């Protein structure tokens, strides 16, 4: 089959999405909506999306939805992009599915996985010697079961040559938008992002989860209120003594209770919230480093620089520069 041409004379990119029982439906529909939306926004057939299961039969997603594939994996032209979504089905996949993905991969110009789809790519030997990521809950499994894969657990997506892997669910949308920007330009990607009401600003090196998601939510109302206070007032006095007073507990009792219910110490939680807030200001504003450090409770630019180097391996100014070059 000859590749379809766009109005500008460019070939439409065939995207083949692999379907299987117990697939995560959002891992499928998120990228599919991005690619089809980009085609509509461009006014040309920029992408031609095809879904396929092993035998072309219906699949049941992990949420119970039934998806109807366009055909079987063995049929159809070689894809430009082979996309493997995640879901429970990747953890106990049919060996025939692994073989099918392994067979198709050499004929694809780009390999993409969403969430635990990386496990299937790794099982097929397609991530050997490459950097990759997956849902944070399965990064350890990926590294343990496939030591030849260099797992980067703190990225929402990772590009290594023609292979791109992403973290859970919404990270697949971020990666798909990044691919659209690469293929069709930033204006098209931005149009799709606006239509889907998502941000076109998360680069692949952004952490998978925020301080609030990384820590557990406290069960007791006073401790939950303190967590919220920390998030909303990073520049305030967030010492254990000040936070304990807000929770109406002694400092020792507060520190023990906070750790027991959130899984982290008050100091580490404050540190992560301040770092996260500083990163957002550096990404979204033109405020200087000194002003950002003051707004985030660091006190001095040097204190903020030490925090950035400790957790991110780079200073605030360099972090801002890298962020803007990856947008």
Compile the SSE list and pairings:
Blueprint: E1 13-18, H1 25-42, E2 47-53, E3 59-60, E4 66-67, E5 71-72, E6 81-84, H2 95-104, E7 110-113, H3 117-123, E8 131-132, H4 139-145, E9 150-151, E10 157-160, E11 163-166, H5 170-184, H6 186-196, H7 211-214, H8 221-232, H9 240-247, H10 251-262, H11 266-284, H12 289-295, H13 301-312, H14 316-325
Helix pairs in contact: 1-5, 1-6, 5-6, 9-10
Commentary on this structure:
This protein has 327 residues and is α/β, with parallel strands linked by helices. The protein has helices at 25-42, 95-104, 117-123, 139-145, 170-184, 186-196, 211-214, 221-232, 240-247, 251-262, 266-284, 289-295, 301-312, 316-325, and strands at 13-18, 47-53, 59-60, 66-67, 71-72, 81-84, 110-113, 131-132, 150-151, 157-160, 163-166. 46% of the residues lie in helices and 12% in strands. It folds into two domains: 13-196, Rossmann fold (3-Layer(aba) Sandwich), CATH 3.40.50; 211-325, Arc Repressor Mutant, subunit A (Orthogonal Bundle). The radius of gyration is 22 Å and the shape is elongated. Helix 1 packs across helix 6 (186-196) and helix 9 (240-247) crosses helix 10 (251-262). A hairpin with a 2-residue loop joins strand 10 (157-160) and strand 11. The protein contains 14 helices and eleven strands. The two termini are 35 Å apart. The protein has a seven-stranded mixed β-sheet, sandwiched between helices. The chain has a two-stranded antiparallel sheet with strand order 3-4. It has a two-stranded parallel sheet with strand order 8-9.
């Amino acid at each position: 089959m000859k590749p379809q041409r766009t109005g500008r004379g460019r070939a439409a990119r065939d995207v083949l999405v692999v379907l299987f029982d117990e697939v995560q439906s959002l891992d499928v529909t998120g990228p599919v909506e991005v690619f089809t939306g980009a085609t509509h926004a461009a006014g040309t057939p920029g992408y031609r999306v095809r879904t396929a299961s092993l035998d072309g039969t219906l699949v049941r997603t992990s949420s119970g939805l039934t998806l109807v594939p366009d055909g079987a994996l063995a049929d159809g032209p070689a894809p430009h992009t082979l996309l493997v979504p995640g879901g429970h089905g990747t953890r106990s996949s049919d060996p025939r599915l692994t073989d099918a993905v392994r067979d198709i991969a050499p004929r694809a110009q780009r390999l993409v996985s969403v969430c635990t789809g990386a496990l299937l790519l790794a099982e097929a030997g397609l991530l050997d010697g490459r950097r990759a990521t997956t849902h944070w809950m399965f990064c350890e499994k990926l590294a343990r079961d496939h030591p030849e894969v260099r797992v980067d657990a703190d990225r929402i997506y990772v590009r290594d040559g023609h292979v791109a892997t992403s973290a859970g669910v919404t990270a697949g949308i971020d990666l798909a938008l990044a691919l659209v920007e690469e293929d069709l330009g930033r204006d098209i990607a931005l149009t799709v992002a606006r239509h889907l009401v998502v941000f076109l600003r998360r680069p692949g090196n952004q952490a998978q989860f925020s301080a609030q998601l990384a820590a557990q939510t406290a069960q007791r109302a006073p401790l939950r209120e303190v967590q919220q206070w920390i998030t909303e007032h990073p520049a305030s006095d967030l010492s254990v003594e000040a936070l304990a007073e807000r929770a109406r507990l002694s400092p020792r009792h507060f520190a023990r209770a906070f750790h027991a219910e959130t899984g982290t110490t008050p100091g580490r939680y404050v540190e992560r919230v301040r770092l996260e807030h500083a990163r957002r200001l550096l990404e979204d504003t033109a405020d200087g480093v000194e002003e950002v450090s003051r707004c985030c409770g660091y006190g001095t630019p040097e204190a903020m620089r030490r925090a950035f180097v400790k957790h991110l391996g780079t200073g605030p100014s360099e972090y801002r520069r890298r962020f803007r070059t990856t947008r």
